[in-house]
Amino acid sequence: PGINDPIHLFNNNGLEIYKEENADSYIVNEFPGFYTVRFMRDNEVYHAVSINYRGMILDTFQNINCSNKCRLCAVKKNGNWGIMDFNQKMIAPYELKSNQNMFPLNSVTAWYSLNDTTIRIVNLQNKKEISTYGGSIDDSKNGYSITKKDYKNGKYKFTLIDSTGRILYASSRFLRFKDTLYFTRNIGFEVI
Q: Cα(109)–Cα(124) distance, rounded to whole angstroms?
């Protein structure tokens, strides 16, 4: 389309199914069972739709990012992000302020934090939210994550959790990953 021309989406029968007036470009992605169309203005996504293979609009969003590996989508409505599976079922509510840390390389869980104060863990095998922790994800490696929570006037609690959400270690000392070792300041230890 030309600048300021509406973008029309048509189904296989040639019937218009959606019209977007304010986009200057769009991106179409195909996933098993549906397409996503993200409408852009000034190189930013501001509106998105999911469409099934029959050409029916499934839902509208402010933005959508899907992962074939996880078979999940990060979806945004009313300024907040949530997690939706490929059947268009919400797994985690629209509470996340950003989609940072949404889909790590790990294929067992999706981690995300709410306003950097809550970590939610989603099991990718059964598509259910399984755990919630106070704090933010501070570091992740090989299916393990370190969470950090401010608990007293700038003092932090660090927790090492595995990909199932199980707490392996908690400390008020600083935790970071280093190769296959997890360590605190001045104290090194092996977890595996």
A: 5
Q: What type of residue sits at position 19?
A: K
Tokens 């029916």, residue located: 56
Whose tokens are 């030309």? That residue is 2
Label the pairing between strands 72-77 and 80-85.
antiparallel
Separation between Cα atoms, residue 89 and residue 126, nearest integer Å: 12
Return left, alpha or beta for 21; rule: phi > 0 is left, psi -120 to 50 is alpha, else beta. Answer: alpha
The pLDDT assigned to 180 comes to 44
> Which helix (H) or strand (E) is 169 found in, with range?
strand 167-171
- Spatial separation of the C-alpha atoms in residues 41 and 118, rounded to whole Å: 32
> What whole-number distance in Å separates Cα of residue 114 and Cα of residue 57?
29
Q: Confidence band (pLDDT; 50, 70, 90) for 101? A: low
Q: Name which residue leads in pLDDT, 156 or 30.
A: 30
Q: State CA 77 to chain mean position distance.
A: 13
Question: What is the DSSP annotation of 122-180?
Answer: EETTTTEEEEEEESEEEEEETTEEEEEEEEETTEEEEEEE-TTS-EEEEESS-EEEETT
Burial, 37: exposed, middle or buried (Cβ in 10 Å; 0-12, 13-18, 19+)?
A: buried
Tell me how many degrees the CA angle 106-129-70 measures, rounded to the nearest 5.
35
Residue 138's CB is within 10 A of a number of other CB atoms, namely 17
